[in-house]
Amino acid sequence: RGICYTLRRTREGTTLSASKNMKFREFGDADKPAVVFLHGGGLSWWSLRDVIQYFKKDYHIITPIIEGHG
Q1: Helices and strands counted in the chain (H then E)
Q2: At 3, is the pLDDT very low, low, confident or very high (cuts 50, 70, 90)?
Q3: Per-residue confidence (pLDDT) for residue 47, from 0 to 100
Q4: Which of 4, 19, 22, 61 lies most in the core, judged by the most C-beta atoms within 10 Å?
Q5: pLDDT class for 66, splitting at 50, 70, 90?
Q6: Which of 44, 47, 13 is nearest to 30 (CA)?
Q7: pTM of the model
Q8: Are 37 and 68 spatial neighbours (Cβ–Cβ below 8 Å)?
């Protein structure tokens, strides 16, 4: 038995809905292959900015905004 997730894109970002809503930052072209970058505790998506800049020209980058962790 799996969990059903729904992605909803808005002007502010993308929301993934399951049992809770989660906010994401997206970079690059959404028509390209997607890559999800996860950051560790105490950090934020901002800590991945150099890696995101490198990969966003070839991939659609998705990184969650984890509340309480940066």
Answers
A1: 1, 5
A2: very low
A3: 81
A4: 61
A5: low
A6: 13
A7: 0.62
A8: no
Checking DSSP bridges between strand 13-17 and strand 34-36, what pairing results, if any? unpaired
Residue 4 CB contacts under 8 Å (≥ 6 apart), including other chains: 18
Q: How far apart are CA 38 and CA 11, in angstroms?
A: 22
Burial of 50 (0-12, 13-18, 19+ CB in 10 A): exposed
- Comparing 29 with 42, the larger pLDDT belongs to 29
pLDDT, averaged across the chain: 74
Total residue count of the chain as it appears in this document: 70
DSSP 40: -
Dihedral sign of CA atoms 18, 45, 29, 36 in order: negative
pLDDT at 35: 87
Q: How far apart are CA 40 and CA 47, in angstroms?
A: 10
